[in-house]
Design brief:
Elements: E1 9-10, H1 20-29, H2 48-65, E2 71-76, H3 79-91, E3 99-102, H4 105-115, E4 121-125, E5 149-152, E6 154-155, E7 160-161, E8 172-175, E9 192-196, E10 207-212, H5 213-216, H6 229-234, H7 244-259, H8 262-282, E11 289-290, E12 301-305, H9 309-321, E13 324-325, E14 336-339, H10 346-363
Parallel strand pairs: 1-13, 3-4, 3-5, 5-8, 8-9
Antiparallel strand pairs: 2-10, 6-7, 9-10, 11-12, 12-14
The structure holds pyridoxal-5'-phosphate (PLP).
Pyridoxal-5'-phosphate is lined by residues 14, 79-81, 106, 152, 156, 175, 177-178, 196, 199.
Length: 364
């Protein structure tokens, strides 16, 4: 097996693979961006060229997600992890609670950060089932007067995804770090979406926040500048120096997605890719066991276990020897995880599924 540039099939959970065409474009632009004589890394964030890069990135993201005019798109720093704090600091005002739905490790972290700010309410915690599914959101009992309900659309470590958008009678805040742009969404179902770029959009260093204007207006008028959503919105993400290079790469990824049919087409590709691997799990005669319940199987992070540590180690070792990198699962779930974000190639899924079938035959 030989991939262009001797690359490997990279199943890493994040930072993760990017489209090869995007890397090639970035390489071609690296030293002298469009003839302006310098690199995007060396360019003023106030320059005309960068102004165009960030505005096009925003427009293309709006196009992909079908965002209405009344939403703001922000390119911030601090990762999704800063959003765990910034959201409650801005919106869980004094004396109010906010509801948290915990379907895995990241939701739990978001809840714990909110506890440092005030008194959030845990309205669902999937701990007892080892976070193997997501609840039906419209069945949950929301807390009267809650400022928002926080969900994690795809739990990256457990591989659990709602696979649907649910409109609720309270503002919904969603950590979409690991499945944003993996399928079309109903933008109306979310008042604030945040996502670190390094799973499905670009390199680490930029966090996209998409917030409805109506919700934004509930944030305090003045707070520490870097924590001030309104200030970032008023300045169109240029209050201070933004992560210019990361935004530029995200912009290339958005153009790449648009050129390949947008999110509906991407969702079809993602379904086909995930099916290859889930089928290999389900048809392995129990050699591989999927972690997530079928109704909530993530199309981005496929989690599975083997019977014991010895066989798991052997599987990972043989996989590595065959050019499959990054399959070791997170220690909290154990076993293996194949992260197959948008940019992960279909042929890589075909190859892994075949390898898993062979392994199951030899070890069944
Ligand atoms: C990776 C991840 C995070 C953490 O992102 P950082 O950018 O490292 O802060 C948060 N939530 C989800 C769902 C993730 O996958």
């Amino acid at each position: 097996m030989s991939l262009p540039y001797n690359r490997v099939y990279n199943f890493a959970p994040g930072p993760a693979c990017l489209p090869l065409e995007v890397l090639e474009q970035a390489r071609d632009d690296l030293v002298n961006y469009k003839g302006v004589g310098l690199s995007v890394m060396e360019m003023s964030h106030r320059s005309k060229e960068f102004e165009t890069i960030i505005r096009e990135a925003e427009e293309d993201l709006r196009k992909l997600l079908g965002l209405p005019e009344s939403t703001h798109v922000l390119f911030l720093q601090g990762g999704a992890t800063l959003q765990f704090s910034m959201v409650p600091m801005a919106f869980m005002s004094e004396g109010r609670t906010a509801d948290y739905v915990i379907t895995g490790t990241w939701g739990k972290k978001a809840f714990e950060a909110a506890q440092l700010v005030g008194q959030p309410t845990k309205i669902y915690d999937g701990k007892d089932s080892n976070y193997d599914h997501a609840p039906c959101l419209s069945d949950l009992k929301l807390t009267e007067g809650a400022a928002y309900v926080h969900i994690t659309s795809n739990e990256t470590i457990q591989g659990v995804d709602y696979l649907a958008d649910t409109r609720l009678p309270v503002p919904v805040v969603c950590d979409m770090s690991s499945n944003i742009l993996s399928r079309p969404i109903d933008p109306d179902a979310y008042d604030l979406i945040y996502a670190g770029a390094q799973k499905n959009m670009g390199p680490a260093g930029v966090t996209v926040v998409i917030v409805k204007d109506e919700f934004l207006q509930k944030a305090p008028a003045k707070t520490h500048p870097m924590l001030d959503y309104r200030l970032h919105a008023e300045n169109k993400s240029l209050y201070n120096t933004p992560p210019c290079w990361a935004i530029y790469i995200c912009g290339l990824v958005y153009k790449h997605l648009l050129a390949h049919g947008g999110l509906a087409a991407q969702a079809e590709r993602n379904q086909a890719k995930a099916k290859l691997i889930y089928d290999a799990i389900d048809e392995s005669g129990g050699v591989f066991r999927g972690h997530a319940q079928k109704a909530n199987r993530s199309l981005m992070n496929i989690t599975f276990t083997l019977a014991n540590d010895e066989i798991t180690e052997r599987f990972l070792k043989e996989a590595k020897e065959n050019g499959f990198a990054g399959l070791k699962g997170h220690r909290s779930v154990g076993g293996c995880r194949a992260s197959i974000y948008n940019a992960f190639p279909h042929e890589g899924c075909v190859a892994l599924a075949q390898f898993m079938r062979d392994f199951a035959c030899r070890n069944g």
